[in-house]
Every structure is written in C-alpha cells, then in structure tokens.
Amino acid sequence: xxxxxxxxxxxxLSYLNQVFQGNKEMIHQIISMFVKQVPDYFSEMxxxxxxxxxxxxxxxxxxxxxxxxxxxxxxMEALVLEIEKKSKNGDKGAMLxxxxxxxxxxxxxxxxxxxxxxxx
Length: 120
Fold this sequence. Notes:
Blueprint: H1 14-19, H2 24-51, H3 57-70, H4 74-88, H5 94-119
Helix pairs in contact: 2-3, 2-5, 3-4, 4-5
C-alpha cells in the first residue's frame, strides 16, 4: 500500500489504494498516466486563454476532472470545477485566466511530489 500521509499532504491516494487494494504497481501506473496526460490539458487551457477562446475551456476541464479527483487533489479539483462551470456558463476574461493560472501553478507544485513518489 502506498501511503501519503504527512509526506505528501497535497494529495490523497486512499481512493486508489482502495480501488487497487494497495497494488503499488497499479497505483504507479495511474499516477504515471496523470503526470503524462494532465499537463496537456492544462497547456491547452493556457492556449485557450491566450486565444480568448474561453468556451473551449469547458471540455478540457471536464476531461481533467476525473484524473484529478482520483488522486484526491481537492484544491485542484475545486479550481477545475470552477473553470468548467464558468466556461460552460459563458464567463470570460480575467476570472478564467486567473483560475487557469492557479490550476497550472498547483499542478507544477504537485508534479514534483508525484515524480518523487514514482521513484520510491
């Protein structure tokens, strides 16, 4: 079983441990997929912001949401849900730019921890 209590306070692997019954190899595979796929979603989100194509954020946020939830990234999940909701409702501008910037910043911090966990 992979336990992240105290060592990795930013995420919670209890869901993955429950689903995969502590199978470290399977959990590592899920984390590896997350580390490979989620940055692409965030990169596309940043491109949408640059193009001011805010409605295109909704499907990207929706795709990223389940991966983020599986790793128990509550703060990041809340940001992605807000991006999804606001972009679906037609919101534009600085609020969405700020949310995308914050979720990317959060990911950059957590990715270091996840990469470290994968090396353990």
